[in-house]
């Protein structure tokens, strides 16, 4: 697969309040302006999970101003890579897009201690994704 000059990645989970928010924040932080980042949910929550916000703050990334967004067909069409995290069949499929499904524990209803290992696994996957895209992490 050829990589566009500035690849676009969309992270999708059900509520867009945990996993997809952490993944988008890590990719934005580590990829800087070398990648376009989106996140969305098939049934977005009202707010980002407070334990997720706290866990990300611990690693120096502030997502307290983020809010869950609804998944749109346009967001999928505008993305080169679509990474699902338990969104099931709610994610629309378009030929020519690269789809990855990351099996990750759901941080919903969990405390910060349970969120930390999920956060750390997401960071490692993001670093791997950057390598696949040929992008050197900024941190």
Feature tags:
139 residues, alpha/beta, four-stranded parallel sheet
| Overall average pLDDT | 92
Count of DSSP strands: 4
Strand order, main sheet: write it out: 2-1-3-4
Radius of gyration: 14 Å
Order of helices and strands: EHEHHEEH
Low-confidence stretches: none
**Biggest β-sheet, characterized?**
4 strands, parallel
Q: Count the helices. How many?
A: 4
Topology diagram in text:
Layout: E1 8-13, H1 19-31, E2 36-41, H2 50-58, H3 73-77, E3 81-84, E4 98-101, H4 112-133
Parallel strand pairs: 1-2, 1-3, 3-4
Helix pairs in contact: 1-4, 2-4
Describe the structure.
With 139 residues, this protein is α/β, with parallel strands linked by helices. The protein has four helices and four strands, in the order E-H-E-H-H-E-E-H. A four-stranded parallel β-sheet has the order 2-1-3-4, covered by helices on one side. Strand 1 (8-13), helix 1 and strand 2 form a beta-alpha-beta unit. Helix 1 (19-31) crosses helix 4 (112-133) and helix 2 packs across helix 4 (112-133). The longest helix has 22 residues, at 112-133. The two termini are 26 Å apart.
């Amino acid at each position: 697969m050829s990589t566009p000059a500035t690849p676009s990645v969309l992270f999708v989970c059900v509520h867009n309040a945990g996993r997809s928010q952490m993944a988008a924040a890590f990719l934005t932080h580590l990829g800087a302006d070398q990648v376009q980042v989106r996140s969305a949910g098939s049934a977005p929550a009202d707010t980002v999970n407070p334990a997720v916000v706290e866990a990300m703050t611990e690693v120096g990334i502030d997502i307290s101003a983020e809010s869950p967004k609804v998944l749109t067909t346009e967001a999928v069409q505008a993305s080169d890579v679509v990474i699902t995290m338990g969104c099931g069949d709610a994610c629309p499929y378009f030929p020519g897009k690269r789809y990855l499904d990351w099996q990750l524990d759901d941080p919903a209803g969990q405390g910060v201690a349970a969120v930390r290992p999920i956060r750390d696994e997401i960071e490692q996957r993001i670093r791997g994704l950057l390598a696949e895209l040929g992008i050197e992490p900024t941190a």
